[in-house]
């Protein structure tokens, strides 16, 4: 039985992770960390010294859905307590990402901008489509709830990286005014409204046709289930950086 802690436990995703964990018998959420303390679904949520709490609750893996400023000290606490770390938080700058990845020399670390299995498949399909449809215009769109603070979404950035690994395109974030399209650009658009759980779409247009590759999450439970699968998979592994694709492929 893998014992997990949840960072950002009182947030939208943290609560969903704790609720989803309650239905599983391969792992248990034993403690949460957040600014606001109390409990979520019977799991204590504390704000005390995280490394001490990880030892006290005998935590194997921490699942993090919080903010970058919280994830970095959390990674240090995981190193101190020798706990694995699954990171779903998005919005890191380059330095923050480097600091986070540095923790993987001491602990097993798995970070993903999207823990849905469908997005893994979308990434692979996008790679194949961009490779096959050379010269088609590319445009990337994402939509999320009105509480999301980072833009474009982490998933959109990951999809952009996939595209750029296949083709040399320059992102243009939104367009306004006189803005003729260059051949080597990719428009990137972020919408924020209501409680949209997460929608991503890449269109490839040319040769009198439009290919649309899209994914939409219907419930946060899809991300929570993927993150918990990652936590169960990560427990007991050697220090290093792992990829959610390995979990999906059952490696
Ligand atoms: N990889 C994936 O599959 C997914 C990733 N995400 C990402 O997860 C992150 C969280 O999303 P969401 O749950 O919607 O956001 P929320 O704002 O609802 O939750 C974040 C929580 O973290 C808390 N927090 C802030 N600072 C600390 C701290 N120092 N220690 C502990 N907790 C802290 C916040 O508290 P307070 O509100 O008081 O500041 C809040 O309760 C985002 O970066 C989002 O993009 C989301 C869905 C899926
Ligand atoms: O904040 C969210 O909600 C989500 N964030 C992730 C992202 O930034 O890509 C994943 C998912 O789309 C939901």
UniProtKB/TrEMBL annotation:
**Where would you say this protein principally sits, based on its record?**
cytoplasm
- Catalytic reactions on record: (S)-2,3,4,5-tetrahydrodipicolinate + NADP(+) + H2O = (2S,4S)-4-hydroxy-2,3,4,5-tetrahydrodipicolinate + NADPH + H(+); (S)-2,3,4,5-tetrahydrodipicolinate + NAD(+) + H2O = (2S,4S)-4-hydroxy-2,3,4,5-tetrahydrodipicolinate + NADH + H(+)
Q: Does the keyword NAD apply?
A: yes
Which one of the record's GO molecular function terms can you name?
4-hydroxy-tetrahydrodipicolinate reductase
Q: Name the positions where NAD(+) binds.
A: 8-13, 36, 88-90, 112-115
Q: Which SUPFAM superfamilies match?
A: Glyceraldehyde-3-phosphate dehydrogenase-like, C-terminal domain, NAD(P)-binding Rossmann-fold domains
Q: Which residues form the Dihydrodipicolinate reductase N-terminal domain?
A: 3-115
Sites binding (S)-2,3,4,5-tetrahydrodipicolinate sit at 145, 154-155
Q: What EC class does the entry list? A: oxidoreductase
State the family it belongs to: Belongs to the DapB family.
Quaternary structure? Answer: Homotetramer.
Specify the protein name. Answer: 4-hydroxy-tetrahydrodipicolinate reductase
Gene that specifies this protein: dapB
């Amino acid at each position: 039985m893998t014992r997990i802690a949840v960072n950002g436990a009182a947030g939208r995703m943290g609560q969903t992770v704790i609720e989803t964990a309650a239905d599983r018998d391969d792992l248990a959420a034993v403690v949460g960390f957040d600014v606001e303390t109390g409990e979520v679904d019977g799991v204590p949520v504390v704000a005390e010294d995280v490394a001490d709490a990880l030892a006290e609750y005998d935590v194997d893996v921490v699942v993090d859905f919080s903010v970058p400023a919280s994830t970095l000290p959390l990674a240090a606490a995981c190193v101190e307590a020798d706990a694995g770390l699954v990171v779903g938080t998005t919005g890191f700058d380059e330095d923050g990402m480097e600091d986070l990845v540095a923790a993987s020399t001491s602990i097993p670390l798995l970070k993903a901008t999207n823990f849905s299995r469908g997005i893994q498949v979308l990434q692979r399909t996008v790679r194949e489509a961009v490779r096959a449809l050379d010269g088609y215009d590319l445009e990337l769109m994402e939509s999320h709830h009105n509480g999301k603070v980072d833009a474009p979404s982490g998933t959109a950035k990951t999809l952009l990286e996939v595209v750029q690994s296949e083709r040399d395109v320059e992102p243009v974030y939104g367009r306004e005014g006189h803005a003729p399209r260059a051949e080597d650009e990719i428009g990137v658009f972020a919408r924020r409204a209501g409680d949209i759980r997460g929608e991503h779409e890449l269109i490839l247009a040319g040769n009198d046709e439009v290919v649309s590759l899209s994914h939409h999450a219907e419930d946060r439970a899809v991300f929570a289930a993927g993150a918990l699968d990652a936590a169960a998979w990560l427990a007991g592994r050697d220090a290093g950086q792992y990829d959610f694709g390995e979990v999906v492929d059952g490696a």
